[in-house]
Design goal:
By secondary structure, this protein is mainly beta. It has 10 helices and 45 strands.
Amino acid sequence: MKMKTKLTALAVAISAQLIPMGNIAIAQEESADKEQEFELIMVTGSFVRRSENFSSPSPLAVIDSVAIDAIGAKSIGDITQTLTINTGAENTPDAFTQNATAGTSNINLRGLGVSSTLVLLNSKRQVVTAQPNNSGVNFVDTSSLIPMIALNRMEIVKDGASALYGSDAVAGVVNFITKSDYEGTQVSLDYQDGAHGDNKEYTVQGLWGTVGNDSSLMAAISYTNRSPMFTGDRRLSRPQDDTSSLGSPGSYFLGGTPFIDPTGCEEFGGFPRLLAPSGTVPGLEIGFCGFDFGNGYSFVPDESRLSTFVQATKQLTDNVEWTTEISTARNRAVRGGSPSFPILTFPTVPADHPNNPFGTDVSYFGREVGNVGDGTSFPGDPANTESDTFRFSTMLQGELDSGFWEVSYTAARNNFLFTVNDTLGQQFQNALRGFGGQGCDPISGTAGVGACEYFNPFATSLSSAPNSQNLFDSFTGRQEIDSTSNLEVAEAFISTELFEMNGGAAGFAFGAQYRYQDLTQDYDSLSNQDSFSFVIGNADIYGEQDVVALFGELALPVSEDVDIQIALRYEDYGGTIGDTIDPKLAVSWRATDNFSLRGSISTSFRAPSIFQKDGGGTSLNQMVDPLTGSAAFAADRTSGNDELVPEESTAFNIGFSLEPVDDWSIEVDYWSFDFTDLIIKENFQAILNADPQNPERVVRAGDPLNGPLLQVLTTYVNASSLETSGLDIVSSFKLETDMGTFSPSISATYILAYDLVDPQAGPIDGAGSRNNSNIGVSTPELRANLGLNWKHEAYSANIFARYVDSYSDDQNCADGNLFSAACTEGFKDVDSHLTWDAQVNIDLGRLFETDGAYVLSLGGVNLTDQDPPQLFTNAGFDSKVHDPRGRQIYARLAIEF
């Protein structure tokens, strides 16, 4: 029942997005000018089989295993981070923008959101991670898909695809396709060493497969261990960027006025920030004693990943084949953090506290531990993530006289456990009143007597009156968020020929899908009571969603030169979400043998997620308080919104393919997306900027209108609109010489517009902006990769220049101060960034004429060790765009026998 087709010229050309074809691959040599035979699979973006000369009317990028190996990718995140069409993904996580999702990675095509790109594995859906990111979005964790050694290629549909695949495909589709019918054994060993800190990484992978007369079996396993890189290993930020007003030593409020700890601040490592001239109050300083928390956080978490993949096929009859896949992923990450979080409950230090120098009740504004007193700070208190993913997919596929049918079932689950220590608000208040200590009973005990101890928050705790470990243990708790996400999909479709046309047989596909998903977040009992002083807590969450869909596709080869694709999908969510019908029309025209045009238009629909409707949570973010003009690390507390309506969009693409001369291909596409009712989490900074003294949305310590910032209350809303458009340019050339084959290539994306309407910030021109103060993502206008590949006999090499354009930082003025109404010089520029990657490959098996295949690869990423452009913010760089690790040198040995 297996059918064969050749790799189309379009696929060959577009695969040059990362590297031209022809690099060394184990037991694989390819020539772009030869017809080559591959097992037929449906091209992503269609349910209809096509003739071998078919060119997709939708923009399709094909990135094969050769291109993946060429960039030295150890993970899927390494691949997507180099794609110019990927904007704002979270592949270099840090604690400041990904509070609870360390160790994960995702895809964000066109900057439309990490949940707006549908991620498929062998054309079937994958479960989303149960733990949302800081924006409250659940996404497919690409770190939990499959071992890289089992990946054959990625196919990316770059225009909207909801008419074929349904919700979540609004920005496009990324389909990860595994090897199949593999026979043999393959092992790869990777080692990578970073230039800063102890940042090392090694990966061991294995692949085995066998093929019988009527069956096949393939199994893959991968283990990765990555050592951490801390912010202190490569301090990119200024001290003031990572300095919190809540320190230890801390500050104390008398009425609405803060006073720096009179027993010590700067001499113990604190950063005094005066709010009035010294001596305004005799013997006291008005202001805050800040704490620099920057050194203990992670650029790269301490991480381990273990993943497996098994695929089995069985020919049940001459016309029916059964395929089953099982994959697992076990990911663990430990993310560095501050010695303790700020205490946002504004506890009272009583007048009779034995260490209170004020002699009256004061309110504490600080944290339980910070500076040690010798110029250093207490060790960071890490957060831990544990993610376990299981996926089962089974499929029957049968041949018809003029088509085929398919029935499939997929079930997947992600269990995600996040744990972090924080101060218990009531227990800390008890300790300030003399009822601290694990053996103290606040009801029957006596303050400061026996098992009951006073906690000393003043600087004297670092010298004459230290606190005991028993005290710390009595008011330190561990928040646990145990989350589970489930997905089940049952799907059936039939694809057949209808009638003959001038260009061949018209194809028709029709199918139905049932999709069920649920989300559970089980918080510990202390969190259920909002017992923590910084991460606060949350109620348990449960929600479910089921969808019934019908879809159809018509492929019309009007002539040998014109192909038309018409697709239509109906989805019914029930309840307040309702249903939708989304069409797609795509046309391709081969004007000449060397020039073709393509165009597509489609509508998309994305329903509110379970978390957006029924969930809620607290994330920790740096915010700029308009009342003071200073940055503060405060809580963004978000609640779900069951009144959300679905977001809708229209996608348009027009492009051409040109081959001016043999072996030179040029691909250009203009694309645009027009969203309405875009579902977003309100931007906390925009809420602050709009009304910093609104007590219903902004929570402050002490004075509810003018006190220090503690929390901003947000929810999910339907924003008015988002319109984005741009150009994709991909070109490659192959030059044969006596010294080998040289293949230069270029891939670039230029964003023409990124216009959005923010519920608080209003209309925004977001192209070329960091978009920190609105709902958008960092959007450099130009990203480009320029490559050169060389191959000669047993040797090959490549070099890439990767360029990211400069863009504006709307958090800071051009003079480096935080942006405010007083800023007249415009925003600060984020510098453009150019890095160089290179790799050398030696085919040892060919060189020494061995029976097995042995390939040694040596390479480097960011060879010149360029710093990422500096931002005056937490961590000092933009993790949505740049990589903080610097130079990475790697070696790989791949063996096949």
